[in-house]
Write a structure and sequence with these properties.
Blueprint (H helix, E strand, L loop, with lengths): L1 H16 L3 H28 L11 H25 L22 E4 L10 H10 L3 E3 L13 H15 L4 E5 L1 H13 L7 E5 L15 H5 L5 H8 L3 H4 L2 E5 L18 E4 L5 H4 L3 H13 L1
Parallel strand pairs: 1-2, 1-3, 3-4, 4-5, 5-6
């Protein structure tokens, strides 16, 4: 829904811009207004459907602040980075470093539902600045089973481990965290990963997924059979490899505590929307520090 609105607004602006600027901007404004209304409805739902969730309840100021930032962040992601910048930064499998220096641990970046590797553009700039090898995936098929993504993750992990000699860290947004857990289950791969960071991942599902017809969407319904089967095979040692970032203003994954895992390091960042959460300075700096320390 959000992607459709953003693309429609940009297409309207481009199509009419050279013929009738006032029509172009009027149409763009009306479509964009619809986009902000959709996001506002999501924030109202997350506020009303908290039930007895143990996360801190957001007040109106926090919800408004998160909505405002999410409107900007979502346009950047869906209207620019993903359609036009997804391939602007190539994967870096290995860095040429002096032989006296130890190799840097690699990072596999795994996006979420209806996204692509363009989501990670700010992260890729940061990793390049450190000279750190990385692979940013494009999960396919878009609407397939989450289990189908395990082979892609395994191939990326193998490439990075071969290049560096070190087990990589996985950084995952939204559904990407579930894909990482599905990979761990499918390949019994605990020893092949140093740590896993999830950002706004619906570990216990999300209320919004109840309306999804896609296979991976149905798997993300609250306490779905797929999620329960996934959790049943996870040991405390596996869960201890996770850092889970979540927010009480996540407009996609709610109630908020569904983005946490028992036994993991669960980190709450208040007043951040779903896309915004991935780029919050605290999330990025703490995650980059974790990657450097494990």
């Amino acid at each position: 829904m959000v992607l459709t609105i953003v693309v429609s607004a940009v297409a309207w602006l481009v199509f009419f811009g050279s013929h009738s600027p006032w029509v172009a901007w009027l149409g763009f404004g009306l479509i964009a207004l619809g986009f902000t209304v959709v996001l506002a409805i999501e924030f109202m739902l997350l506020s009303r459907l908290r039930n007895e969730d143990p996360s801190p309840a957001p007040d109106f100021a926090a919800l408004f602040r998160a909505w405002r930032h999410e409107c900007v962040c979502a346009v950047r992601v869906f209207g620019w980075r993903q359609p036009f910048r997804a391939q602007i930064i190539e994967d870096s499998h290995a860095q040429h470093r002096p032989s006296a220096e130890a190799p840097l641990r690699g990072v596999v970046l795994i996006h979420g539902f209806l996204c692509n590797r363009g989501l990670w553009t700010p992260w890729l700039h940061a990793l390049n600045a450190e000279g750190r090898p990385f692979v940013a995936l494009n999960l396919m098929p878009v609407f397939g089973s989450i289990d189908a993504y395990a082979a892609q993750i395994d191939e990326a992990v193998t490439r990075l481990q071969s290049a560096t000699g070190l087990a990589p860290v996985l950084v995952c947004h939204s559904m990407g965290g579930l894909a990482a857990r599905a990979w761990l289950r499918a390949y019994a791969a605990d020893a092949r990963v140093a740590h896993i960071v999830t950002i706004g991942t619906p570990h216990h599902g999300t209320w919004l997924a109840r309306h999804s017809k896609a296979r991976n969407g149905r798997q993300m319904r609250l306490q779905s059979a797929w999620l329960q089967e996934l959790a049943a095979v996870e040991s405390p040692a596996r869960r201890a490899k996770f850092t889970c970032w979540y927010s009480n203003c996540d407009n996609i994954v709610f109630p908020a505590s569904t983005a946490t895992l028992p036994g993991a390091e669960n980190c709450h960042l208040p007043a951040a929307g779903h896309m915004q959460l991935a780029f919050e300075p605290r999330v990025m700096s703490a995650s980059l520090a974790k990657i450097a320390s494990v």
